[in-house]
Amino acid sequence: MTTRLVRRSTGGVTGGIASHGGIPASRNAAAPHTWHHERVSIRCLVVDDSEAFLKAASVLLQQEGLTVVGVASNSAEALQQARALRPDVILVDIGLGDESGFDLAQLLAQDGQGGSAEVILISARAETDYAEMIAESPAAGFLVKSELSAQAISRILQQ
Fold it and tell me: In the chain, what are the domains?
């Protein structure tokens, strides 16, 4: 796990087991996501067209122990931030102004340059309003904005 964290934060393996002749880095990269939010903070990017929500969500999630590494208000910013920051999870608003959060989730999944971030779709509306589209999307899950929390995010990531 140390090697993976170092690789994400610096862009290359500079420490950990792999650099000392132990387990090859490729084995660490292929390991499934196992989140232990008590031990390691989840690095999160929040994408929403509401500046007020971006601020509120950032404060809430950071108070609960997540690290909000960035925010974006549209797809172009989100793709740029995902590539630059390599978050663990990207929260994407379904109703992203004139853009579609579903389209952005698809772009993030296809991009490859954004690392292996999991996408969680969010909305003020209920999951039943989007059930079929959520099921067809590459997203790891869905959260109603009113239920957004570090625990809810962790629960989705552990599924």
Answer: 1-31 (no CATH), 39-157 (3.40.50.2300)
